[in-house]
């Protein structure tokens, strides 16, 4: 009989990695699923749902991301400033051009569970519009999408 092991917070902190993902010509939803799973730590054999055992993720070239089909013209993102008449409506194509980092952030945040732990996990996501980032000292490893399921 196998025993289930639960990771403690101290054990989870010891094996954190940094991954870098190039978002050039990647589909938004598929990228968001893989990044959310990396942030939660579902790729590790000692995954525990109530402990932060995930890794840090850096996404570069976020302005070169794609969406499938013609969603860039047909889908919209809404934002409200809190004032009367403050509703903003932007197409996904406009979001990719100007606010691609926010678009990816919202997609990944939507894939995480809605609790205190997810607010801690999303802080480990770093998104940059071009290939320049400030995390070279952490020696991030290149990550290929589609590797998690295999």
How would you sum up this structure, described in words?
- With 150 residues, this protein is α/β, with parallel strands linked by helices.
- It has a domain at 14-66 and 98-142: Ribosomal protein L13 (Ribosomal Protein L13p, Chain: A).
- The protein contains 6 helices and 6 strands.
- The strands form 2 sheets. The chain has a 4-stranded parallel sheet with strand order 5-2-1-6, with helices on one face. Strands 3-4 form a two-stranded antiparallel ribbon.
- β3 (76-80) and β4 (87-91) form a beta hairpin.
- α2 crosses α5 (100-111) and α4 (92-98) crosses α5.
Overall helicity:
25-40%
Mean pLDDT: 93
Strand arrangement, largest sheet?
Answer: 5-2-1-6
- Ends apart, CA distance between termini: 26 Å
> Helix and strand succession?
HEHEHEEHHHEE
The helix tally amounts to 6
Instruction: Give the structural class.
Output: alpha/beta
Q: Spans of 5+ residues with little confidence (pLDDT < 50)? A: none
Q: How large a portion of the residues is in β-strands, by DSSP E?
A: 15-25%
Q: According to CATH, what is the class of the domain at 14-66 and 98-142? A: Alpha Beta
What are the defining features of this structure?
single chain; 150 residues; alpha/beta; Ribosomal Protein L13p, Chain: A; 4-stranded parallel β-sheet; 32% helix
Please render the helix and strand layout as text.
Layout: H1 9-14, E1 18-22, H2 28-40, E2 56-60, H3 71-74, E3 76-80, E4 87-91, H4 92-98, H5 100-111, H6 116-121, E5 125-127, E6 141-142
Parallel strand pairs: 1-2, 1-6, 2-5
Antiparallel strand pairs: 3-4
